[in-house]
Specification:
Mean pLDDT: 87
Low-confidence stretches: none
Strand order of the largest sheet: 1-2-3-4
Radius of gyration: 25 Å
Shape: elongated
Strand content: 5-15%
Oligomer: single chain
Number of helices: 6
Distance between the termini: 30 Å
Number of domains: 2
Amino acid sequence: MTDSLLARIARLNRLSIDELRGQWRDLFNREPPRYSRTFLEQTLAYRLQELAYGGLSNSVQRKLEALAEAHAQRPHGKRRAASGDKRPTAGTRLVREWKGVEHTVVVLADGFDYQGRKYKSLSAIARHIAGTRWNGLLFFGLRSTRRAA
């Protein structure tokens, strides 16, 4: 980044909210939204860089538009399962040793059984065992910490 661009970006946090809104009008040719100061500063900093170095490439813009359209067509409230996060088949026994104690979980069609009690998620069982929040798939070794690229 050039020194003058860096200086302009660094100056943003010293401007009043009215001055930030004025900058917004100058850079976007429209009224600023009623969002937080932080949002205005970050968006103005991005816009300054965009004007200095160019915006997103056409291919990236097309990809983002396609993703937004696909998202808009999905039924709201429904999440797609990540490809690597498949639920084990009902009847599968998951065994995990934690602090010298072996813990066994049985996968049910609609949940999990641990010590005769039914749980909705592996994360709830992992939290019960470890006493802290855990991703259940990680805790029981069904997913590694690294995701496939």
